[in-house]
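Q: Okay, next protein. This is phosphorylase kinase from Phyllostomus discolor. I've checked the sequence twice, so it should be correct. Can you predict the 3D structure?
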Amino acid sequence: MTLDVGPEDELPDWAAAKEFYQKYDPKDIIGRGVSSVVRRCVHRATGHEFAVKIMEVTAERLSPEQLEEVREATRRETHILRQVAGHPHIITLIDSYESSSFMFLVFDLMRKGELFDYLTEKVALSEKETRSIMRSLLEAVSFLHANNIVHRDLKPENILLDDNMQIRLSDFGFSCHLEPGEKLRELCGTPGYLAPEILKCSMDETHPGYGKEVDLWACGVILFTLLAGSPPFWHRRQILMLRMIMEGQYRFSSPEWDDRSDTVKDLISRLLQVDPEERLTAEQALQHPFFERCEG
């Protein structure tokens, strides 16, 4: 998929990014972030295709404080990506470059794009296909948590598909290290996937904070969404949607859920527990009977 190109999408000038250009030939735009653009690129020596995320860090666009924030966040993301390198269901960072004006992260090219787009095309997935995707996702989350990393932005847009329809978790921009017993307070993520404790924490300064359990709530939202074709928590007035999340208000409505197994509904209900202490861990979720069903 090639996106329309605007003047802000012009390629960085040669001098600012010489090292990157000597090795890679950037091609069409395949995605956009808030402060970044993603292009397909070709490794000049081998002809192999990759994806490059290009972030502009110039005073024209950002204040000095914002510049340093973007640089620091990207360095943190790069550090985490290097730490988790090699996991079969996490995107592989191939290369990174930093110039005075731009930062470049080179990744494996995931030709089938986002799980979000695949779901939009298919509307809803079968339990069999959902089982395969969720097993891979939970294995990735379990690996992150075992390494004291919390992702904080799990959603179908950040799950990519390769040629064999295998998933890779991407976009570690909100990820951070979290030691056992340590808590976070920052409000970040995507509204429909936010765990209740993130919202409560942002509204109550006496709240103790949140931990890696927020990733399992998001896994529950993703699981529900893959099977229903729509999210469990949605309202056109966002304040009402946030209240639904904090109260854990969702329903297995007809007709989408009529043919779904009680087993998968049970797993969803154990992930969408408002109390993080009651929520399944990634390891516990992988032991759930839903994943014991035969693949045939």
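A: Here is a summary of the prediction. The chain has nine helices and nine strands. The two ends are 33 Å apart (CA to CA).
Q: Noted. On to the next one.
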